[in-house]
């Protein structure tokens, strides 16, 4: 049970990093953004923890 306190933050960190990398890779592949500039989206994704990547996925749609 003591190991659970060490495992949960590591798992959450891995999920956060994977979501951030996914959003940044999608952002760099886009030619344009709908609401904000790319530089501002990079700042939001990098520095607003889990809210930044989720808001990017919510507001910016892309067609593949």
UniProtKB/TrEMBL annotation:
It holds the Pfam family PLDc_N. One of its GO terms (cellular component) is plasma membrane. It comes from the Bacteria. It is found in: Cell membrane. It is a multi-pass membrane protein. Keywords: Cell membrane, Membrane, Transmembrane, Transmembrane helix. InterPro entries: CLS_N. This is Uncharacterized protein. It comes from Clostridium botulinum. The lineage of its organism: Bacteria, Bacillati, Bacillota, Clostridia, Eubacteriales.
């Amino acid at each position: 049970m003591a190991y659970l306190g060490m495992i949960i933050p590591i798992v959450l960190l891995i999920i956060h990093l994977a979501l951030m990398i996914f959003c940044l890779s999608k952002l760099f592949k886009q030619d344009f953004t709908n609401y904000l500039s790319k530089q501002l989206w990079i700042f939001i994704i990098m520095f607003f923890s889990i809210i930044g990547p989720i808001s990017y996925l919510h507001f910016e749609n892309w067609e593949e």
